[in-house]
Amino acid sequence: MENDARIILIGNYQPDKQESMQRFARMLEGGFQQAGYKTEIWYPTVFLGAASGNKWLGYVDKWILYPLVIRWLLFSKQLKSNQIRFHICDHSNAPYLKYLPADRTSITCHDVLAIRGALGYDDAHCSASGTGKMLQMWILRHLKRAERLASVSQLTLTQLRELAQNQEAEKSSWRVIHNAYNADFKPMAVEPIKALLHPYGLAANTPFLLHVGSGLPRKNRRLLLDMVVSMGKQWAGYICYAGKAVDESLMAHADSLGLRDRIISVINPDHETLVALYSACDAFLFPSFSEGFGWPVIEAQACGAPVIASGLAPMPEVSGGAAMYADPFVPQTFADAFLKLKDKRIRTDLIQRGFENARRFELKQIVSDYLNLYGLE
């Protein structure tokens, strides 16, 4: 049943290729449409950035020209109805709050890592250049003025309130709304797994540990190599990095440890391949030093992978206690946790609790929470 209310989502500038944020916007769009709401995504208009690939011209598009487009759209399309809600899908676009009706606009804060990094917090593990620091302070200045805000984890909300440092941070309309899955994640059958993973040298029953993500330092890819060395002859499987290609420094470290031949790199896997990896791995490792949420944790749980994650927040919050936790600064703790999975009872229990936790992030519930934030439910 279609609702009279209309929802306009503000997506990310497409030449920036921020795939996770694009998927988040499409996820909300599909969820709201399923709930019966007319929904569309506005993407910042590309004027100069596409032709040149120059980030500074992209900034002109995003921060000078697109605000003019927003004003023109609000005027020309007569979007003053109280039935219309605007939602900015990424906190990095917080400056757009200035141009949208404050009482009908909300925003999602996915993390404050870049902001905290710009302010010198070492635990953010996210450095910033001089201009980057200026940009992050500008984003924070607008973000803390939001009247309606969804944070993807309690950690992120707590950190944002600390950064806001004023009464505005105590607004009751700032709340935690966890992310939902942006695609279908469930255990895959053996035959399609074989077909999908064979091109990468992963035959049936090949033991491997899985890491999914980028090569950013905070993702702590190096830990998997060190933990495998610490296990010695107790485990002789492979280490699979899915996402960005393995960089030279990580490969050099693998060489120094004699592990080059045990590394498998699956660069930017499509969805089916990613599900196959989650479904087939001996364990999914998530040793991040800092995160805003940690989508791969719940994706792995939904596919039946036992998860060993960093004990730092928000990983315990997101995994719901259905993971083993270890110290991301001490590879041996990850090795010890993994070796415990040899006990079938421990492994089976962990996987089952992972399935149960994964159900918390179904799209229908998250959409209901957002509609409540908008004042539509």
Describe what this molecule looks like in 3D.
With 377 residues, the chain is α/β, with parallel strands linked by helices. It folds into two domains: 6-180 and 362-374, Glycogen Phosphorylase B (Rossmann fold), CATH 3.40.50.2000; 190-359, Rossmann fold, CATH 3.40.50. The chain contains 15 helices and twelve strands. The protein has a six-stranded parallel beta sheet. Helix 6 (154-164) links the parallel strand 5 and strand 6. The longest helix has 22 residues, at 55-76. It starts with 5 loop residues before the first strand and ends with a helix. The model has no long low-confidence stretch (mean pLDDT 93).
Quote the beta fraction. Answer: 5-15%
For the record, the CATH class of the largest domain is Alpha Beta
Provide the succession of SSEs.
EHEHHEEHHEHEHEHEHEHEHEHEHHH
- What's the architecture of the largest domain, going by CATH? 3-Layer(aba) Sandwich
Q: What is the number of beta strands? A: 12
Residue ranges: pLDDT <50 for 5 or more in a row? Answer: none
The end-to-end span amounts to 15 Å
Write the layout of secondary structure elements.
Elements: E1 6-10, H1 19-34, E2 38-42, H2 49-52, H3 55-76, E3 84-88, E4 105-109, H4 113-118, H5 130-143, E5 148-151, H6 154-164, E6 174-176, H7 190-197, E7 208-213, H8 222-231, E8 238-243, H9 248-257, E9 263-267, H10 271-280, E10 283-286, H11 295-302, E11 307-310, H12 315-319, E12 324-326, H13 331-340, H14 344-358, H15 363-374
Parallel strand pairs: 1-2, 1-3, 3-4, 4-5, 5-6, 7-8, 7-10, 8-9, 10-11, 11-12
Helix pairs in contact: 1-15, 7-10, 8-9, 8-13, 11-14
